[in-house]
Amino acid sequence: MSLSILITSAGRLTQHVISTLLSLSDCPPIRVIARSHADLGRSFPAQLRSAPHSVVIIENITDPNLANAFQGISIVLHSGPLLDPKEEASSVAIIDMAKNAGVKHFILCSVLQPVRTKLHIHKAKLNIEEYLTESRLRYTILQASDVAVNTGKIAIGFSPFVEHAFVDLNDLALTVLTIIRDPKSHSYACYELVAENISYHNIARLIAQEVRRDVQCEVLSTKDYLALMTGSYYVRNEHAEDAITRIMMYYDRWGLLGNPNVLRFLLGREPTSWTDYLRRELPTDS
Ligand SMILES: NC(=O)c1ccc[n+]([C@@H]2O[C@H](COP(=O)([O-])OP(=O)(O)OC[C@H]3O[C@@H](n4cnc5c(N)ncnc54)[C@H](OP(=O)(O)O)[C@@H]3O)[C@@H](O)[C@H]2O)c1
User: Fold this and answer.
1) What residue intervals traverse the membrane (predicted)?
2) What is the pLDDT of residue 23?
3) Which CATH code for domain 5-145+169-193+259-267?
């Protein structure tokens, strides 16, 4: 692939994309933006720190070196900071920088159904999507559902019986790869990435079946859930506290349902279900 790719952050979603790209024999040059507190040794494969790949340390959107990171780049994969009040402003600035640098294609990692504007994160994404669609850049929007993650414990702040849409990180990374391999054919597309709709109660039952022991959801009040999360990586300010509180209330009432048809089309196979994911990730003797 004669491309160069800029990945605007190195979080949960993009680290998976980075590993998938690096596993290719024809991996294009990748440039990743990270903050200075990132543990480069632990968070990034060594391969990423040697030519033709690179990690550029940028503290925030006002860093004068940020615009330089877009020079020579053909494709940008933008994954905005989660639960950050400045997500919209920083994403708009990043779209502008991509445009000014002559980037050929912009992939935006958005959320499933940003029209659910009662949720802070979704509202921000809706505005970012609008700005991107009017940017005159070629783009692909990936509306990802929640990623399936088994942390060994299910603590939630909403009803365990309400269904939510999930996607597997590998499927998401493979979708990004499909777009990178042929960006033009995915221009001006907006893809909903959903594997299945399932409640946490049923996820607990699936894990229990696989590990052959009882697994229960720990259902907390919104206040207790917030207390559990406060001070964690995800909840470091009042904006994040407020956003999480609203998510819990919203999920309790509405859940977040989606449809797997688009992901099935993109992958050319059935998307990875929770059962597939658990069978892949859980140790065989568990
Ligand atoms: N996780 C999901 O289930 C999911 C599903 C659908 C869509 N999304 C969307 O995908 C995006 C990434 O999600 P994720 O789960 O990968 O999040 P994540 O693991 O929290 O990663 C977020 C990245 O943004 C960086 N970041 C945070 N605050 C920043 C700031 N103020 N300035 C610069 N960089 C900052 C983080 O860097 P540090 O590590 O240095 O803090 C990290 O690299 C989000 O926009 C989210 O809405 C996520």
Assistant:
1) none
2) 93
3) 3.40.50.720
Q: State the average pLDDT over residues 270-282.
A: 96
3-state secondary structure of 166: strand
Among 188, 144, 160, 172, CA closest to 248: 160
Task: List phi, psi (to 5°) of 55.
Answer: -115, 125
Backbone angles phi, psi at 259, to 5 degrees: -125, 135
How far apart CA 96 and CA 90 sit, in angstroms, is 10
CA 79 to ligand 1 centroid distance, Å: 6
Residue that wins the pLDDT comparison between 206 and 283: 206
Mapped to the 3 state alphabet, what secondary structure does 38-101 carry? Answer: CCHHHHCCHHHHCCCCEEEECCCCCCCCCHHHHCCCCEEEECCCCCCCCHHHHHHHHHHHHHHC
Tell me the pLDDT tens digit for each residue of 80-124: 998 899 999 999 999 999 999 999 999 999 999 999 999 999 999
Question: pLDDT tens digit string along 226-262?
Answer: 998 887 877 888 989 999 999 999 999 999 999 999 9
Query: For residue 14, which atom of ligand 1 is closest to its CA?
Result: 16
Tokens 């040794």 map to which residue? 41
Out of 55, 79, 169, mutate this one to test ligand 1's pocket (max ligand atoms within 8 Å of CB): namely 79
Determine if ligand 1 sits within 6 Å of the CB of residue 194: no
Report the residue count for the chain: 286
Give me Rg for the CA atoms of the chain.
19
pLDDT at 285: 63
